[in-house]
Amino acid sequence: MEAYRTQNRFLNAEIHQVTKIWRQVAEKEKVLLTKCAYLQAKNCQLESKYLAGLRRLQEAMGSEAGECSELLKQLTEEALQWEASEATADGVGLSPISEYDEYGFLTVPDYEVEDLKLLAKVQALEVRSHHLLAQEGRPLQERWATLGELTPSAELKQLLRAGVPREHRPRVWRWLVQLRVQHLQAPGHYQKLLTRCQTCEHPAARQIELDLHRTFPNNKHFTCPTSGFPDKLRRVLLAFSWHNPTIGYCQGLNRLAAIALLILDEEESAFWCLVAIVETIMPPDYYSKTLTASQVDQRVLQDLLSEKLPRLMAHLGQHHVDLSLVTFNWFLVVFVDSLISDIFLRIWDAFLYEGTKVVFRYALAIFKYNEEEILRLQDGLDIYQYLRFFTKTISNSRKLTSIAFADMNPFPMKQLRQLRAAHREQLEAELQELERFKAEYLESRASQGRAVAEGCAGEGEGEGEGEGEGEA
Fold first, then answer.
1. pLDDT, mean of residues 151-171
2. Which keywords are on file for this protein (predicted)?
3. Residue 89, H or E segment
């Protein structure tokens, strides 16, 4: 027995030493991984600054001929083809920028204008830099890992605003959607809708089919010929058109459902996510034929921009720029296709929980983020051209989130409801006045038509009488 006790003490001491060594190695590995991510990020930042410098030189020199111009052209071409080399540090590979992100979106924006190709590469490097630096935020990852069962709380709100890690996002979104639609769900409802789709053709089926091929042309899951995502999307949209016959289908719903499919992967989950957005988060008639609520929100945004960013709004007013031509789509599809995927998915994390005020907060933040750039433009056409793509140049999600929820003096939901009510009343009055003018115009046209018809009939009778007298 004494021998066994001695042996046991020896083994326990050995286990304790091995455990201690293992913990030290694990800590060292963690430090090295963080250091590696930091070095990769710094490398991306340096490369980004180099490319940005080349772009500024391009703009400054223009089409000037000469040896410097040729050298600049050569350096630019090399920069566009250059990928980060495969290096190794402490056994950890420094990977190049991949063509697609984890959700299948193009990492480097596909700008049609040749002059913006260099800008696209700069953006890709900046996004990767911010992503690598975010890996240092281990406490956030650990908080999500230890969160357990989800319940509405102030802590959850803050976590959602900071962004849900990719591995937790499907579970979190399912819970957020369930929270919204639990009073609408019925067992087998989605399957019944699919059965109806097979037996009856919905009037919106043709438009849905056309929009399937326009959905995310820069996402490999929707462009690959062998992918099953387009078929899933078709079924989700047709099912929704039967579920909500008042709306049926509206352009923009395809992109909302497509994002839900990419994250949740299951058709039925994506269907209920679409229902949650259209029927519980957005105001009624947001996606109706008249888009009344959408028009109201554009007027509300104008008010908020005038309050928060008066200098910018005065500048845009001076050049007669109508922001709704740009922002209308932001609200309709919650920034999908406008921002890079890493940022708009963070917006959706908060949007599914807090609702439409998140969309307003980020719309304000986007203009604040780019305010100085817009103020430098002194021509209306230049401003419109910049507004076409400027949201894609935003790469720092932390900075944008900080502006949205801290720097812009957040407004309460009560203020948003009051503004919506006032603008809805005004818009409905304008629409009624428009309908009255339309009715008066149609009545005027009809009266003119009757008068012309009566005149023609009178002339015909007169000619008939004259012919009769002549024959007599």
1. 92
2. Coiled coil, GTPase activation
3. strand 87-89
